[in-house]
């Protein structure tokens, strides 16, 4: 289990705490449909992580073990990866292991440096942007946006951390520092915290700095890439301060207008493929893939420039949904997310086939939930088929007197109850489909 997976319960507690705190202050920084979409993207990303670790972490492990500088120059010492705190005579019975503390500190700093360049390239190279855009699609800004992570982007970003493997940073030390880096970034995604004062704002990344990064305003575009230390942006010329006279508008230049986590991950890839089909020059095709996002050849209308926006000029995607149907969607989301958390905690002990099957069912459920909140036409047949499948699975567990028969009864009851709600509100699914099923 990774550090991120171990702290998932704390993430959900923080989401609830932020919601209660902002509600008490009369601030509406969250919407149910948007937050569900955010977490759904995060669930999809974590489930994919079960299967892509062989690439994203496996290559790092191999390089550190077989191609690091210590392998070629044995006189260079290995990086300590032990705890910086050891038994001693201190007030708490602990003492500092100075070499280990230095190793952890330098590694943490270097991880954030690699993160800066990984993150910056994900905004400056169209192919990498296609894998990162998911994190920026939300038109809100709250803690749920922090868990809105891309599924495909991880297939590219691992490359930027290989320099750490080449200098011999042990993979466990790297993984721990990387996990801590991401946990720190989680708390940056909030509007409930203002500026924190010059000493902190001058060195550290803060909610204010990161709000700028998520802005679609032209002056905020492609700024503040750092994960923990904002000094990297100041050193490399990408820093921008949050201007109270120009409130941040969140989202992307071309809004997603869908709650579907699969659609979210494929948005820019789909645009890229469509553009590639319309150009004949190989130089244009190469630049479409590896050039800056928004660049297009003259034949396709030229580069897309960000337009001036304000919080008053932007209309957020927010299709109305009957309250009972929203409750239905919320219930299915909670069940799917709970199943995903259980799967993540037990994936290492389950056969890959069972893990893949359970992950597929979770994803299908989340896609159905997205359709509920979009009132898309395809939702009715998809949800009907899904509920019938769960009813059959539950019936099989009961009939065969499986040790999991109690779960079978739960499946049957939930499937029947859910279908009754769905049937009663079937007329709601008369809108034009807002996104494809997959």
Helix and strand sequence: HHHHHEEHHHHHHHHHHHHHHH
Which percent bin holds the helix content?
55-70%
Instruction: Tell me the strand order in the biggest sheet.
Output: 1-2
The count of helical stretches stands at 20
Instruction: Give the overall silhouette.
Output: globular
* Integer count of domains: 2
**Poorly predicted segments:** none
The separation of the N and C termini measures: 29 Å
Briefly note the structural class of the backbone: mainly alpha
Instruction: From the alpha carbons, calculate the radius of gyration and give it in angstroms.
Output: 24 Å
User: Could you tell me the mean pLDDT?
Assistant: 90
Number of DSSP E strands: 2
* Multimeric status of the protein: single chain
Record the SSE blueprint:
Elements: H1 3-6, H2 8-24, H3 32-56, H4 58-66, H5 69-72, E1 85-87, E2 94-96, H6 98-124, H7 126-132, H8 143-146, H9 154-157, H10 162-166, H11 171-186, H12 198-201, H13 207-213, H14 231-235, H15 261-278, H16 282-290, H17 323-346, H18 352-374, H19 379-399, H20 405-424
Antiparallel strand pairs: 1-2
Brief synopsis:
The chain is mainly α and 438 residues long.
Can you walk me through this structure?
It is a single chain. This protein is mostly helical. The protein folds into 2 domains: 3-235, no CATH class; 323-428, no CATH class. Helix content is 58%, strand content 1%. It has helices spanning 3-6, 8-24, 32-56, 58-66, 69-72, 98-124, 126-132, 143-146, 154-157, 162-166, 171-186, 198-201, 207-213, 231-235, 261-278, 282-290, 323-346, 352-374, 379-399, 405-424, and strands spanning 85-87, 94-96. The chain has a two-stranded antiparallel ribbon with strand order 1-2. Helix 6 crosses helix 7 and helix 7 (126-132) runs antiparallel to helix 15. The longest helix is centred in the first third of the chain and has 27 residues, at 98-124. The chain is globular and about 70 Å long.
């Amino acid at each position: 289990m990774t550090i991120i997976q171990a702290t998932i319960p704390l993430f959900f507690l923080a989401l609830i705490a932020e919601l209660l705190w902002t509600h008490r202050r009369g601030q509406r920084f969250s919407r149910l449909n948007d937050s569900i979409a955010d977490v759904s993207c995060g669930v999809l990303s974590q489930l994919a992580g079960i299967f892509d670790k062989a690439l994203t972490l496996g290559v790092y492990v191999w390089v550190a073990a077989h191609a690091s500088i210590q392998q070629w120059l044995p006189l260079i010492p290995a990086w300590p990866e032990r705890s910086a705190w050891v038994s001693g005579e201190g007030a708490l019975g602990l003492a500092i292991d100075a070499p280990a503390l230095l190793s952890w500190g330098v590694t943490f700093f270097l991880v954030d440096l690699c993160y800066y360049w990984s993150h910056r390239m994900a905004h400056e190279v169209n192919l990498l942007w296609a894998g990162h855009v998911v994190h920026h699609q939300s038109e809100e800004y709250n803690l749920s946006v922090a868990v809105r992570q891309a599924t495909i982007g991880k297939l590219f970003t691992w490359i930027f951390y290989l320099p750490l493997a080449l200098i011999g940073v042990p993979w466990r030390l790297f993984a721990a520092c990387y996990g801590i880096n991401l946990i720190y970034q989680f708390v940056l995604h909030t509007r409930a915290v203002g500026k924190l004062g010059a000493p902190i704002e001058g060195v550290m990344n803060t909610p204010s700095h990161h709000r700028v990064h998520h802005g679609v305003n032209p002056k905020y575009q492609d700024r503040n890439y750092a994960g923990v230390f904002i000094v990297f942006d100041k050193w490399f010329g990408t820093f921008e301060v949050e201007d109270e006279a120009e409130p941040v508008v969140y989202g992307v230049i071309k809004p997603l207008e869908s709650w579907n986590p699969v659609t979210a991950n494929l948005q820019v890839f789909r645009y890229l493929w469509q553009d590639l089909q319309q150009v004949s020059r190989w130089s244009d095709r190469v630049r479409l893939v590896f050039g800056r996002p928004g660049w297009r050849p003259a034949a396709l209308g030229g580069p897309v420039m960000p337009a001036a926006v304000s919080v008053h000029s932007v209309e957020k995607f927010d299709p109305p949904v009957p309250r009972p149907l929203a409750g239905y969607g919320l219930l299915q989301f909670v069940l799917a997310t709970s199943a995903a958390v259980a799967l993540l905690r037990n994936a290492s002990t389950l056969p890959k086939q069972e893990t893949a099957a359970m992950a597929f069912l979770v994803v299908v459920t989340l896609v159905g939930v997205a359709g509920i909140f979009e009132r898309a036409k395809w939702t009715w047949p998809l949800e009907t088929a899904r509920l019938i499948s769960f009813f059959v699975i539950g019936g099989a567990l009961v009939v065969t007197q499986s040790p999991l028969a109690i779960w079978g009864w739960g499946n049957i009851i939930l499937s029947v109850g859910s279908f009754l709600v769905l049937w009663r509100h079937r007329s709601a699914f008369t809108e034009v489909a807002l996104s494809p099923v997959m």
